[in-house]
Amino acid sequence: MAHAIVLRKHGGAEALRLETVAVGAPGTGQLRIRQTAIGVNFHDCYVRSGLYRTLPLPGVPGIEAAGVVEDVGAEVAGFKLGDRIGYVTAAYGAYATERLLDASLAIPLPASISDEMAASVLVRGLTVQMLTQSVHRVAAGDRVLVHAAAGGVGRMLCQALKHLGAFVIGTAGSSERAAAARAAGCDATILYREQDFVAEVAAITDGRGVAVAYDSVGKDTFAGSLACLGVRGHLVNFGQASGPVPPFEVSRLAAWSNSVTRPILFHYLTDRAERDAMVEGLFGALADGVLTAEGVSRFPLAEVGRAHAALESRQATGPAILIP
Fold it and tell me: What does the radius of gyration of the chain's CA atoms come to, in whole angstroms?
């Protein structure tokens, strides 16, 4: 028997309960995985609270993990017992000691990527690949705004943007986090709690605005991010930490021929060739030092509620992972 964190009703961290579950043998096209490290993401917090109603209840949350192949189902090629793999999935189920996984989702891990690193960087790193290569291809010299620049995705996004030659403006909530954002590649930082970021962006860019604004905050920053765009500027809203963005008049975009997108990582992973290219780009960037993995905060699987609380309170030191 295996163990899993089961969510039976939406709520606070206390809604996450450890239960005994049966896993069974892998079916056609499946692998049975013994998991060694499980990523914890804000997406998981939104699912737990009910902000995202994408996990049928009762269900097992979690969208990324790493582990070892324990059994291989029929018609599976390319994997064998003992292989180390990581994965990202919209089907959930990662908060478990063992699980069945469609083999098409499994990503072979090179020796240079530890299980803990994989569980902590796959979602964040592939999100960065998506944002800078697919959603908006950033060019050298582009002026770019990144909200929450010292956060989990924000820090890696700033590193990637700086490598691409962009002029990066980052917002942060404190002088300490602003320093972390500068260390990640920001050319200029704005303390959004003390400064009007729209006015500051206008001053930094001499009124020209930015080519792209990456906004994972949502409700509190969306209107301001739109105001920061230059002619043909692109607002990429890829999260909603402060809540969902309220409806707005599309005609507002006409003033500067602006555009808005709301990308979801899972939709950029459905094509196998595209996913593999993104993975190759991520692993290469990590190997070359373009992106750096932070130290992780480890929590036992049974203490997942504490991991969620640490993430939501911004008290976790580095990415949070669960150890089964």
Answer: 20
**Cα–Cα distance for residue pair 157/150, rounded to 1 Å:** 9
| Cα distance between residue 94 and residue 307, in whole Å | 15
Arithmetic mean of pLDDT over the chain: 95
What CA–CA distances, in Å, run from 238 to 49, 138, 148, 160, 185?
Answer: 19, 16, 12, 17, 20
**Residues 138-188: pLDDT tens digits?**
999 999 999 999 988 999 999 999 999 999 999 999 999 999 999 999 999
- Listed residues 262, 288, 314: the one ending a domain: 262
Same-domain status, 254 and 295 = no
What's 185's domain CATH number?
3.40.50.720
Same domain, 160 and 54: no
Write out the residue range of the structural domain in which residue 27 sits: 2-122+266-323
At 322, which amino acid appears?
L
- Let me know if 244 is exposed, middle or buried by CB neighbors in 10 A (0-12, 13-18, 19+): exposed
Split at pLDDT 50, 70, 90, the class of 242 is confident
Q: What pTM was computed for the model?
A: 0.93
Whole-number Å distance between alpha carbons of 8 and 147: 33
